[in-house]
Design brief:
This protein has 124 residues and is mainly alpha-helical. It has one domain. It is built from four helices and no strands. Helix 2 runs antiparallel to helix 3, helix 2 packs parallel to helix 4 and helix 3 packs antiparallel against helix 4. It is elongated. It comes from Marivirga lumbricoides. This is O-antigen ligase domain-containing protein. Keywords: Membrane, Transmembrane, Transmembrane helix.
Length: 124
């Protein structure tokens, strides 16, 4: 199905959260990307991969445009960390675990605001 079976329907989580669903228990996705594909379909998988790529590319572009060396370091280090987590998400469900998802969301926020912080520091 192009939009998947729904959230928490695949694997052992599906047995407890969505009992009776056709994917519950049958397909235990070890890969985070496979879980995305099963639960959100290929459309959801494409949207998530596009989001990851956009954030990583924005971080690299920000690295070359920023003037403050500390902000450049933050931008590049968070981009590299997100890239590593995205690669690890291929083998296991790495991006949506409790302590890691805080870093992922912080990376999204940092890539959006880092240019504004750099401009505010320059004007001050």
């Amino acid at each position: 199905h192009p939009i998947g079976g729904g959230l928490n329907t695949a694997g052992n989580t599906g047995l407890s959260q969505s009992p009776g669903h056709p994917m519950a228990g049958k397909y235990d996705p070890d890969s985070g990307h496979l879980r995305l594909a099963l639960e959100m379909g290929w459309i959801g998988l494409f949207l998530f991969l596009a989001l990851y790529a956009t954030v990583i590319i924005t971080g690299v572009i920000n690295y070359f445009k920023l003037r403050d060396p500390l902000l450049k370091g933050y931008s590049l280090s968070y981009s590299v960390a997100l890239f590593g987590l995205t690669v690890a998400h291929y083998a296991q469900d790495a991006l949506f675990q409790k302590p890691i998802n805080i870093i992922v969301v912080a990376t999204y926020a940092l890539m959006i605001k880092v240019k504004d912080i750099d401009n505010a520091n320059e004007n001050a």
